[in-house]
Design goal:
Length: about 110
């Protein structure tokens, strides 16, 4: 039988390539992040939440308002350009109680 080789050369090659490979990995991540920011600029544009998220938000608002009902038309998220803080925007919010409309807000 032959004995396994104990040559340290393959380990040295990988050790020598470790930092350059990390650099390439970092450049790829930065390139992808740049493309995402260019495709979806962080400020000035609303990103609409899916219907299931809107339904969950609406259900929580209903639970917090006993005896009333809250209906939300759409929910969006926007990042402010100045401070990069998220803003949650509600559209077409209606408050009703006992079948009577208390308030209707169109934004």
């Amino acid at each position: 039988m032959t004995e396994p080789s104990t040559d340290p050369q393959p380990k040295r090659r990988w050790r020598a390539l470790r930092w350059p490979l990390r650099g390439v990995y970092l450049l790829v991540i930065l390139a992808i992040a740049s493309l995402v920011v260019l495709a979806y600029p962080p400020g000035g544009r609303d990103i609409s939440l899916p219907d299931w998220a809107r339904a969950r938000i609406e259900a929580r608002m209903d639970a917090a308002m006993p005896g009333g009902n809250v209906t939300v038309g759409a929910v969006g998220i926007r990042l402010s350009r100045e401070r990069m803080l998220p803003q949650i925007r509600f559209r077409d919010v209606a408050l009703t109680s006992d079948g009577q409309q208390l308030s209707l807000i169109h934004i």
